[in-house]
Amino acid sequence: MITLIGVNHFTGPEIAGVSAGLVVLGMGLITARCKGPISGWPRSAWPYLALLATIGVIKCLLLATDISASVLITGKAVSWQPLASPGLALGIVLGLVLWANRRGDLTKELSQGPSQGHTQGYGAEWVHRSWKPLATIFFFLLMSQALLKGGFLTGFQAGLSQLTSTSLIPVAAVLASLSGYVTGSNIGGNAIFMASLTHLPVPNTNWLAAIQNSGAGHGALGSLSILALITGLAKSNRIEEAGLIRFGFWLVCVNTVLVATMGSLLIAFFGEG
Predict the structure, then answer these.
(1) Calpha distance 189→179 (Å, rounded)
(2) pTM (2 d.p.)
(3) C-alpha count within 13 angstroms, C-beta hemisphere, residue 122
(4) Is the residue at 256 inside a domain?
(5) Which pLDDT score, from 0 to 100, does residue 43 have?
(6) Residue 273 sits in which domain range?
(7) Beta carbons within 10 angstroms of residue 48's beta carbon
(8) Quick check: is 16 in a domain?
(9) Least buried of 152, 193, 205, 221, by fewest C-beta within 10 Å?
(10) Which of 41-45, 216-220, 239-243 has the lowest mean pLDDT?
């Protein structure tokens, strides 16, 4: 929390989340190191460390040079800056992983046995473990964009405008968590409902925007797309997948209640400004 507030204050929100993640990772490594040696962990986790480092370097370069604005792809309704996309860091690290895989330096297991056959088997394992989470993420994002671009949310905004300020808070929390749960992303969830909430004819739209942002982020924690990614990485079986999905659903429900409660208390104590 201190890192998020400090970095956001001095440099802006671009690298605040990454900086907080690095601090948490460092604290975890220090704690684990104090309890004993970390046997083999850094070698098996180097792609994740490389991804964090790549994201940090790219964010710092973009913050210092603003070069991302020079490469802009503009459509009818949206604009996209490829150099500011998270896919850039993922692509760089993926290239490093493939290069290390070809050289037999990815893990100790890759250096054993026939190189060509083992590499082909490892590639098949990648496809087997990645297709389900990638397909889940794709179709959930496709569904959210269909709701957004198809005009299906116009009725939601009309209905929300009829609610009182008191009843609007829990409804906004539920919609926020639902948007994060469906998209698996805080940004994607905000893209669905943020505009509808901030244009309501009520005096506390700033609080509603905060509720939407918090609810979408907490809803994304238990989303099916994120859980599919976790189960794919962990090689989970069907029983473990079902248990994790139930846990994620109840986690989102509890977080929704907490967001609605805290939003109501904040508005009650600090007013409807």
Answers:
(1) 4
(2) 0.65
(3) 20
(4) yes
(5) 66
(6) 128-273
(7) 12
(8) no
(9) 152
(10) 41-45
Cα distance from N-terminal residue to C-terminal residue, the chain: 25
**What pLDDT shows up at residue 114?**
46
Cα→Cα distances 268→159, 198, 209, 255, Å: 23, 19, 16, 20
* Distance separating alpha carbons of residues 126 and 18, to the nearest angstrom: 26
Phi-psi group of 225: left, alpha or beta (phi > 0 → left; psi -120 to 50 → alpha; rest → beta): alpha
Task: Say how many domains are in the chain.
Answer: 1
Distance of CA 231 to the CA centre of its chain: 16
Check: CB of residue 7 under 8 Å from CB of residue 55.
no
Residue 77 in tokens: 């309704």
What sign for the dihedral angle of Cα 108, 113, 114, 120? Answer: negative
Q: How many CA atoms lie within 13 A of 159 on its CB side?
A: 9
Q: Region 222-231: what's the mean pLDDT?
A: 80
- Residue 255 pLDDT: 92
Residue 250 has pLDDT above 90, yes or no: yes
In a domain, residue 213? The reply is yes
Tokens of 113: 């046995």
- Report whether 209 contacts 169 (CB < 8 A): no
**Rounded distance between C-alpha atoms, residue 91 and residue 98, angstroms:** 11
- Residue 71 tokens read as 């490469």
Tell me if 148 sits within 8 A of 189, measured CB to CB. Answer: no
Which parts of the chain fold into alpha helices (H)? Answer: 2-10, 16-35, 41-44, 46-65, 86-103, 115-149, 154-160, 165-183, 186-198, 205-221, 224-234, 238-270
Inside any domain, residue 231: yes
